[in-house]
Specification:
binds ligand MTE, Sulfite Oxidase, Chain A, domain 2, single chain, 372 residues, binds molybdenum atom, 22 strands, Immunoglobulin-like, 5-stranded antiparallel beta sheet, mainly beta, 9% helix, 33% strand
Length: 372
C-alpha cells in the first residue's frame, strides 16, 4: 500500500477520497477563522504523500544557458529574503457537487470547502530564479514545477505558470516553507511548496523537487489533460484538451457557510455567513445576499484583512443579519460576489457546466425552514 505512510488527519475533515487523500473542512468551521487552522485546511492530493527528510532535502533549480543551476538545501532557501503573505488557495473543483446535481461530471465530489486561507512565508520565486541567472525574455516561456510525489511508474506531479508571473516581484510567487508560522504540514507540501497568489490550487506544487524554465507549458497530465474549462456541449468523445488554455487565475467566487442547507432558523432575525474571493489579485468589493431566491437583495458586511489593490490574494469573510420576512415558512438564501473589475457570478450552473466540473461559481443557494 503506497499510502501506508500518509500522515494522520484531523477527524473534523469531510473525506472525499481516502487514497489519495482528499478532504475539506465542514462549512461552519471554514469561516470560523479568517486564517484557516492548518489541521483543517482542505487537502487535495493526487498521489501518496512523500516522507521527506529536511536534512537531505534539495531543490533543483535549472539555470539558463550561461547561468548556473542551483541545488538548494532548506538552509540555502532560508538565506533568501523571507517574504510573508496571506493567500487563499482554491481547487478548480471547489463546488463540483453542484455541477454533478445538474449533470454528471468526472471528478471528486467537493462541496464548498475546497478553499482555505493561510499566512505563507518563504523565498520569492523571482529571487531564486534571478540567482540562477534567469531573466524575463521576449519569447513565451513557462516556469515548470515538479513535485517529489509520484505514481508507481515514477511520474511526478507537475504544473507550470508563465515566466512573466514568476519573475514579477509584485505577483509575490513564493517557495513557501512556512504555513501559519509553522513548517508546512506533510499534507501541504513539507518541506517546500509553491504558492502562486490568485492562481488555481493545481499550480501550487507541493513537495517541490525541481524548477525549470521552458519554452512550453509543463507536459504534466495535470497541466495539459486536466484543469481546463470547456463548453457545456463538449463531452468525453469530443473534448480536445489542446484547444483550451490551462486554468490559471480563477473567476470570482462566494458561498454561504451558515446556516446550513435544510436547517431550521428562528423567526425574527437570521445571521448568514460566508466567504468571497476572486482570482488574479482582484478584490471582492461587494457581496449581495437574498432571502427570497434572488428577487430582492441585501448587501453583506465584509470582514477580514484590508485588500491591497491588484494584490487582493485572500478571501473576505462576510456576514449579514437580516429580518426574516413575517409569515415565511421557508427561505431560499442566495449569495453572489462582485470583484473590483465588476466581474459577477453566473446565476445558474447550466451555462457553465463542463465535463470535468471545474470553475463552478454560480450563485450559491441554501434552503432553510423558519421555525413556526
Ligand atoms: N502538488 C503535488 N506535488 N501533488 C498534488 O497532488 N495537488 C494540487 C496542488 N499541488 C498537488 C500539488 C492541487 S490540484 C491543489 S488544489 C493544491 O495542491 C491543494 O493544496 P492543499 O492540499 O495544500 O490544500
Ligand atoms: Mo485542485
Amino acid at each position: 500500500d503506497p499510502y501506508i505512510d500518509d500522515p494522520v488527519r484531523h477527524p473534523a475533515l469531510k473525506v472525499n477520497s481516502q487514497r489519495p487523500f482528499n478532504a475539506e473542512p465542514p462549512p461552519e468551521l471554514l469561516t470560523e477563522n479568517y486564517i484557516t487552522p492548518n489541521p483543517i485546511f482542505f487537502t487535495r492530493n493526487h498521489l501518496p504523500v512523500p516522507n521527506l527528510d529536511p536534512e537531505t532535502y534539495r531543490l533543483h533549480v535549472v539555470g539558463p544557458p550561461g547561468g548556473q543551476s542551483l541545488c538548494l538545501s532548506l538552509d540555502d532557501l532560508y538565506k533568501f529574503p523571507k517574504h510573508e503573505i496571506t493567500v487563499t488557495l482554491q481547487c478548480a473543483g471547489n463546488r463540483r457537487s453542484e455541477m454533478t446535481q445538474f449533470k454528471e461530471v468526472r471528478g471528486l465530489e467537493w462541496n464548498i470547502g475546497a478553499i482555505s486561507t493561510a499566512r505563507w512565508a518563504g523565498a520569492r520565486l523571482c529571487d531564486v530564479l534571478a540567482k540562477a541567472g534567469h531573466q524575463l525574455c521576449e519569447t513565451e516561456a513557462h516556469v515548470c514545477f515538479e513535485g517529489l510525489d509520484s505514481d508507481p511508474t515514477g511520474t511526478a506531479y507537475g504544473a507550470s505558470i508563465p515566466l512573466a508571473r514568476a519573475m514579477d516581484p509584485e505577483a509575490e510567487v513564493l517557495l513557501a516553507y512556512e504555513m501559519n508560522g509553522q513548517p508546512l504540514p506533510r499534507d501541504h507540501g513539507f518541506p517546500v511548496r509553491v504558492v502562486v497568489p490568485g492562481v488555481v490550487g493545481a499550480r501550487h506544487v507541493k513537495w517541490l523537487g525541481k524548477v525549470s524554465v521552458e519554452p512550453e507549458e509543463s507536459y504534466s497530465h495535470w497541466q495539459r489533460r486536466d484543469y481546463k474549462g470547456f463548453s457545456p456541449s463538449v463531452d468525453w468523445d469530443t473534448v480536445d484538451f489542446d484547444s483550451a488554455p490551462s486554468i490559471q487565475e480563477l473567476p470570482v467566487q462566494s458561498a454561504i457557510t451558515e446556516p446550513k442547507d435544510g436547517e431550521t432558523v428562528q423567526s425574527g432575525e437570521v445571521t448568514i455567513k460566508g466567504y468571497a474571493w476572486s482570482g488574479g489579485g482582484r478584490a471582492v468589493v461587494r457581496v449581495d445576499v437574498s432571502l427570497d431566491g434572488g428577487l430582492t437583495w441585501h448587501v453583506a458586511e465584509l470582514d477580514g484583512e484590508e485588500q491591497r489593490p491588484r494584490k487582493a490574494w485572500a478571501w473576505r469573510l462576510w456576514q449579514l443579519q437580516a429580518p426574516v420576512p413575517a409569515g415565511r415558512k421557508e427561505l431560499n438564501i442566495v449569495c453572489k460576489a462582485v470583484d473590483d473589475s465588476y466581474n459577477v457570478q453566473p446565476d445558474t450552473v447550466a451555462p457553465i457546466w463542463n465535463l470535468r466540473g471545474v470553475l463552478s461559481n454560480a450563485w450559491h443557494h441554501v434552503h432553510v425552514h423558519v421555525a413556526p
